[in-house]
Amino acid sequence: xxxxxxxxxxxxxxxxxxxxxxxxxxxxxxxxxxxxxxxxxxxxxxxxxxxxxxxxxxxxxxxxxxxxxxxxxxxxxxxxxxxxxxxxxxxxxx
Amino acid sequence: xxxxxxxxxxxxxxxxxxxxxxxxxxxxxxxxxxxxxxxxxxxxxxxxxxxxxxxxxxxxxxxxxxxxxxxxxxxxxxxxxxxxxxxxx
Lengths: 94, 89
What we know:
The complex is a heterodimer.
Chain A: E1 9-12, E2 31-42, H1 44-48, E3 56-65, H2 66-70, E4 76-82, E5 86-88
Chain B: H1 28-42, H2 48-56, H3 60-65, H4 68-82
């Protein structure tokens, strides 16, 4: 996982964590496109849970087609997502 | 499970009210709550993501019945009580 490049297709993990997360429900399980890296940041889920030394991971801006999320709309929706929220999309999904 | 704050894409909350020339704060107490939170985060009493978590941990009925900065104040009180900075009650 990780080291994604602009243009790569990724799927957002579908899990629904018990605590704080920065994954909006509407992108879970969805396939999007890496736009750019935003550098490395402490994983918000672990910071929120009080972990003393939270994981530091790459954060990516990921673009989704509004139509994929809501069935309508011709625009894109971009969400900044930590590396552990996403995985490389399978070839058939890309 | 998904919390009450995660309403993106949901309907039923009415239209967004967009104010022309909206001020940063609608009342002085809101500015004080904003400043208080900044001071507490900068002094390491809690971290910003812990604050966001505290907002999301609110009772959903209370969350939906309160304004933006009322939620901030409730979350600040929750965290200060949990860290024994404030006495219970």
